[in-house]
Amino acid sequence: TKTLIALIIFLLFILVPDLIPRLLNKPQAQKYLFIIFAGFVIESYRFILVSYFQSIEKFFVRALINIGTFSFRLISILCLIDLSVTNVRVIGMFIAFSGLPVIILYSHKLLGFIKVLVRSTNERVVFKEMLSYGRWIVLAAIPIQLMTRLDFFMVTHYSSLEDMGLYSSAVQMISFFSYIPFTIGTVFLPKLSKCKDFAVIRSYVKKNILMGIPITLFIALVIPLTKYIVLLLLGEKFLGSSFFFQVLLMAFIFTYWTTVLGTVIYSIGKSKVMAVGAYIQLIVFLGLSLSIAPHIGINGIVWSKVLANASYLSLVIIYLYRSIFSKKALTGANRND
Q1: Which of 8, 81, 204, 211 is the most buried (most CB within 10 A)?
Q2: Are 26 and 68 in contact (CB under 8 A)?
Q3: pTM of the model
Q4: Closest by alpha carbon to 185, among 246, 125, 259?
Q5: What is the DSSP secondary-structure string of 255-321?
Q6: 75-85 pLDDT per residue, tens
Q7: Cα gap 47→59, rounded to integer Å
Q8: Would you say 208 and 184 are in contact if contact means Cβ atoms under 8 Å apart?
Q9: How far apart are CA 127 and CA 194, in angstroms?
Q10: Which residues, 6+ apart, have CB-to-CB distance to 27 below 8 Å?
Q11: How far out from the chain centre does Cα 180 lie?
């Protein structure tokens, strides 16, 4: 999928080189398109490598790839600072290609896997199943990516640049918490995908609920303290972002549980359900934002995000209960019954 997207973008660059600058209404952007494209391809294949090693539970190698990419990027930035480079194209080129050494270093592992996949009949059958499973993940990625950008667009449209800056700073602070569900999903999905026994899967859900309760309580306790956290981390000028930080923490609680419980749904091969949930979340967000924001501004957008995240979680809980914990599910011994 990544290769196909890269080829489509490359063909657009070749056949209609001025298309993207024209759509953006920024003719000066054309000279940076190659750098952006190169960075996209390199980062895409880094993601594929990371996903491959995650799937075979090689978490140490996965960590080495991420650390290596960060280290090369940091070295590139330090070199640019030392050389006092100010040319935007040169800076962009250094950063875009900084991930390439790590990809070259580990790519032989992935190539070996692809060779086995092509030569073996059984592996080709598995590959077809992967494509069937993966298409829903790709479809889900569209609304998920839109959700990470639409709120910024709508905040910019319905409020001042000052409010936009305050909202952006709150989003950056939330990013510290986002690693919690991401880490849980990264570690448990490969292990859970191998499990056929629903009793074990139910045990996983119960254990993660017990683990998630103190995390949720911790975040709930942070909410009243956001004013002091903003003051400590960002200073008095950004105190106005404490309200957005509070509401986004509420939204994060829903996201946390969606990720933890959604891992189970992915593991039993129901990625379609998660894709449907992602589109429901997007529709709820757009519907509420467009209805409320014209009347109460940025606050309506932020609360719309909370309710949209809650709608996604509701679908996950309902489906998980019916599939794993309902009386009908309890009568089955495993996921193939």
Answers
A1: 204
A2: no
A3: 0.67
A4: 259
A5: HHHHHHHHHHHHHTT-HHHHHHHHHHHHHHHHHHHHHHHHHHTHHHHHHHHHHHHHHHHHHHHHHHI
A6: 888 888 888 87
A7: 14
A8: yes
A9: 16
A10: 18, 21
A11: 12
Write the single-letter amino acid at 173.
M
CB 91 within 8 A of CB 81: no
Decide if 286 contacts 212 (C-beta within 8 A). no
How is residue 61 written in tokens? Answer: 């190698």
Tell me which residues of the chain have a pLDDT lower than 70.
1-10, 12-30, 54-57, 110, 113-114, 116-135, 138, 185-187, 189-191, 193-194, 196, 327-337
> Per residue in 165-181, pLDDT tens?
888 888 888 877 777 77
Q: What is the dihedral of CA 184, 185, 191, 192, to 10 degrees?
A: 110
d(CA 90, CA 34): 12
313-318 own/partner pairs: CB under 8 Å, 24+ apart: 313/254, 313/257, 313/258, 313/261, 315/273, 315/276, 315/277, 315/280, 316/257, 316/258, 316/261, 316/262, 316/265, 316/273, 316/274, 316/277, 317/261
Query: Residues in the chain, how many?
Result: 337
Cα–Cα distance, 253 to 266 (Å, whole number): 20
